Amino acid sequence: MDKRIVVVTGAFGSLGRAVVGRALEQGALVAQVDVSEARLGEQHADEARTLVLGGVDLADAEAARAAFARVDSHFGGLDALLNIAGGFAWQTVANGDLATWDRMFALNLRTAVSASMAALPFLEKSASGAIVNVGALGAVKAGVGMGAYAASKAGIAKLTESLAEEFKGKVTVNAVLPSIIDTPANRADMPGADFGKWVRPEDLAEAILFLASKKSRAITGALLPVTGGV
Ligand SMILES: NC(=O)c1ccc[n+]([C@@H]2O[C@H](COP(=O)([O-])OP(=O)(O)OC[C@H]3O[C@@H](n4cnc5c(N)ncnc54)[C@H](OP(=O)(O)O)[C@@H]3O)[C@@H](O)[C@H]2O)c1
Q1: With a 6 A CB cut-off, is 134 part of the ligand 1 pocket?
Q2: Which of 103, 168, 89 has the alpha carbon at shortest distance from 129?
Q3: pTM of the complete model
Q4: What is the pLDDT of residue 59?
Q5: Where are the domains of the chain?
Q6: CA distances to 54, 57, 110, 149, 212 from 17, in Å
Q7: Which residues pair with 132 in a beta bridge?
């Protein structure tokens, strides 16, 4: 990842932070984009290698375009987009509401489409442009209460396949499909679980960064399960 210019969306979340940390360790120049403002005040040791953009709602096409224009003017290009922004909701259909379906689609799918649209003009200029999306293993066979979430993440899988075909030979487009990530939120929600079986964020970060690197230039349209011991 040495000197590769990458955008990490959802950069202030559990997985986003792990990806930002590993990307910087591997020598990348990293733009951190998130709707949250929470980590805006925090400094990174090497400010020349990271740009922090908080308060950016990627579901808003204009906000996304403005953020990627800032990345381009700051770093002078873009090599990889890591679409990590997203979230989860559990709700049965019988006791559910349409607002949850709208929220899941906006959070998981609209953000990725909007960020991709804003990034692609820059990625096409890179000699080795890449997009890595985060789908979910739970979208391959959805369980009870997983409808809205799994449908939005199934959308990520289809976006990945379709965009990979659209940009074949120009920009690679792949997705990881995690099972359960070992995050503080998941530990709080499932206190009785065996945390050791879950995917460690730093391990998932390695898979994402491989797909964002030049080493994976022959891989596009792949949906890679990253499941740890689950
Ligand atoms: N955790 C798991 O077990 C698991 C399993 C499979 C897949 N995934 C996927 O992995 C990704 C990361 O998960 P995580 O556990 O790290 O989630 P997380 O800690 O909630 O981080 C997600 C980040 O994305 C931000 N975000 C939300 N909406 C946004 C928007 N419209 N524009 C820009 N940023 C936005 C969030 O900000 P706010 O906090 O302010 O909303 C948050 O900082 C997600 O796509 C998730 O669906 C997670």
Answers
A1: yes
A2: 168
A3: 0.97
A4: 98
A5: 5-175+204-220
A6: 13, 18, 21, 22, 16
A7: 82, 174
Distance between CA atoms of 155 and 153, rounded to whole angstroms?
5
In the predicted model, what is the mean pLDDT of residues 74-82?
A: 98
Cβ-based burial of 178 (10 A; exposed 0-12, middle 13-18, buried ≥19): buried
Is the CB–ligand 1 distance for residue 12 below 6 Å? yes
Q: How many CA atoms lie within 13 A of 63 on its CB side?
A: 14
What is the spatial distance between Cα 149 and Cα 155, in angstroms, rounded to a whole number?
Answer: 10
178 C-beta closer than 6 A to ligand 1? yes
DSSP count for the chain of H helices, then E strands: 7, 7
CATH of domain 5-175+204-220: 3.40.50.720
Pocket test for ligand 1, best of 71, 88, 200 (most atoms within 8 A of CB): 88
Query: Chain-centre distance of CA 39, in angstroms?
Result: 18
Q: Which residue has the tokens 């990625």?
A: 123
Q: How far apart are CA 70 and CA 166, in angstroms?
A: 26
How far apart, in whole angstroms, are the C-alpha atoms of residue 88 and residue 118? 24
Task: Choose one of 84, 159, 186 to mutate for the ligand 1 pocket test, by most ligand atoms within 8 angstroms of C-beta.
Answer: 84
Cα–Cα distance for residue pair 218/73, rounded to 1 Å: 29
Q: 81-90 burial string, b = 16+ CB within 10 Å, else e? A: bbbbbbebbe
Kindly report, residue by residue over 4-50, the tens digit of the pLDDT. Answer: 999 999 999 999 999 999 999 999 999 999 999 876 656 565 678 99
